[in-house]
Structure formats: C-alpha cells, structure tokens
Amino acid sequence: MATKIEHCKRIVTVCQEHNVFLAVCHVLRYLPVVKKIKQLIDNNVIGKLVSIQHIEGVGFWSFAHAYVRGNWHNERESSFSLLTKCCHDLDLIQYWMQPRRCTYVSSFGKLTHFTKENKPHGASERCLTCSVEQTCPYSAKKLYLDIPNRGFPVSVVVPDIEDGEDWNSIRTKVTKALETGPYGKCVYGNCDNDVVDQQVVLLNFDDGSTATMQMVAFTQHSWRRTSRLFGTHGELTWRGENTIEHYDFLTQTRTIYDETDLSPGGIMTSGHADADFFAMDSFIRAVASDRSDLLCTGPQDSLTSHILAFAAERARRENRVCSISEMM
C-alpha cells in the first residue's frame, strides 16, 4: 500500500470516503490451495486452530539479487525487508486466523551476513575482477553470465534484451552492466545495503492462539513458502505447491488435497504460482458487478496486514513486545 503507516491509513480513509474499489495485490489469498486451507480450518477439519508456523525462504541468490544489489537493498530507497518481501506472508497468517485479531507482536532479526566485516580476504569491489570469485556463492558472474539466460534475473540487469537477440550479444550487454552497475558489485560492503537478511516474527491473537513467521535469505530454493497449521484434532502442511497434507489425530491417517487448477476456459496461468491471474480475475469481476465482497484483499484487510509488518519492525528495532492497539 505504502511505505509509511500513516500513508496506508490515509489510502483506506480516502477509499472509504469516495466508495472506491481497491484491491492490494496480496495475491496469494486468491490461490485455490490457500482458499482450501482456509476452508479446512473453518470446517474444523483439524479441530480448533491453535498455532501457525510459516517460513518464507527467499533463496540465497534471490536475496543477493533483490535485497543486496537490487531495488530493495536500502530502506531509504524502498523500505524494510519484512514489508517489501513478507507482507504477503503476514497477510496469509491473518487470513487463515480470521476472525481472530492479532493483539501483540514481537520480532528479532538483523543484517547478519552481507556486511563489510564478512568480506573474504582478497575480494575486490566487483565480481568480474575478484580473485576469490570462484569460491563465492553470491558471485555475479555465476548468477548472470555463466549460464545463458535471457529471462529473469538477467532481464533485470539488462532490461533492453530484444526478441531473438542471441546470447553473445546479450552476454556483451550483461558484462558491461556488471562492470559499471549495481548488479556487479561485491555483496560484502559495496552495495549500501542495510535491510535484514533474517527475521522471525511472533504473533499473539485475541483467543490465545499464536503464529510465527520466519523470513530467511539463506535457503536452497527461492520464494519457497512452507506452512504448518496446528489444530486440536489434526495438522495441515503446505509446502508452497498445489497440495495440502492433512494428518488426523483420531484416525492417525494422512489425506492429500490436490488443488492443481486451471484458469477459467482451461488456460494455464503463471505469475506467483498462478495467483496473479486469480487476483486480476477477481478484481475485474468485482468492478463489473459492483460487488466489493468478491475482493479478498480489500483496503481494510490489507491495512491490517501492513500494520502487522510495521508493528513487527517496531518491536524488532526497540527490542520489545508491541501492542497492535498502539499502531491503530
């Protein structure tokens, strides 16, 4: 919504005053598998939901690309990484927990690894001239040059790739960009980065239920979310794909729910595991039919998710438990 809490609140106020349809692109709520998890919770399939454990594995190279060298590396230029990367995740927790309301938040984390103190001996300011580049997993050469690629993330480094352009031409452009631009810099102290690379958030809800959300840069897979939802009679596990595993305590059996889906008309979709399509489809149908109830991520719900992020960051910075009421 915005990078300051007062701006988020103002957006919601203006939308309400002028009866404007607004849907924030917390697109994961629109995924069939995410909706199925909510349905299972509401149908008491696992009894009373008492706790959620959620992990957002950013991926070692992805974090270096976006949050050390890239657009979201510095709070002054964008915002803190919990907001820019994980407002989706806090929104998921809020969605699954509804109608419960979060009351208190605490959080811990820091910029652990991508600092000048961790710069290897002999490393230079840029990967292409670095004597220890071959021993570095965050090498820009490995990420952008060693494997021919015209798509992401190379297309971010060189956005003017033409259709049909051969790899030799693209490689020349990429090499020049790495020699002069931000994506060729050493990740250890040369990128003016200050956002945290690992953080954990602890949330307490008004009925005593709890949740944890962990963001960590140092994972094998990129953008891999894992969720475990613990109920009094069972457990749900979601590994960021289209299936949900349900374990029933009474029968001690496992059931797999497969929510693999096609968009209407049988057209395969893409973008955030197809969530982008479902979000846009919902928004268009809501506007066309003048039905705001078709929006899963309207202004008030999205404001609440953002408040959780701002509260968690305040708790982390001030090393205390933050009451949600003080953020309202």
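^ that was protein a. below is b, sequence first then the tokens
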Amino acid sequence: VYIINVTWSDLTSQIIYRRYSKFFDLQMQLLDKFPIEGGQKDPKQRIIPFLPGKILFRRSHVRDVAVKRLKPIDEYCRALVRLPPHISQCDEVFRFFEARPEDLNPPKE
C-alpha cells in the first residue's frame, strides 16, 4: 500500500492510500481514454508516463517490492499531475486522488 499526500489547488491536503493494482487500473483507463497521448498510434507522441511494471513475487517479499517501487510511483504521480489539463484534470485522475471512505481505515499492507 502506498501512502500519498494529495495537495489540491486550493491548498487543502489529505492522505490517501492506494494499492499498486489501483495505479494499474488508472493507467489502463488513461491509455484507453487517451490513445494518442498514450502512444498507441505513434510511440513518439506518448506523454502519459510509464507505470513501473508488475513484479511477480512471493508473499514474503511484498514490502521489498513496494519499497523498490516507491520512487517510480512518486515520479509517476508527479508526472501525471503535470500533464495537460485534459488528462491531469479528467474524471479518472480526480477519482483516483480523491479521498475514499477506506482512506479513513487504511489497509495494513
């Protein structure tokens, strides 16, 4: 589970918790919604950042994998919010970064 401190344009901030699978779901939604910006027709036109890849691991290595992905996940989030507004402010991105009821009782791992 990744802990993300979200600061909105009105300077309010909140802590959210997201599993890698939620980042992956967001990435798939963005690539589907924005095929040109995702580089599907021409890889040179890709502006949607790459998400760190899935890693197969044994259950005992979950934490190690999460730690290795920490910097790339941070870079991914920062790149995402710097994209043009039609992507960075789309519903999918807003929903991903919005606080959810489960953020009040975050998962342990």
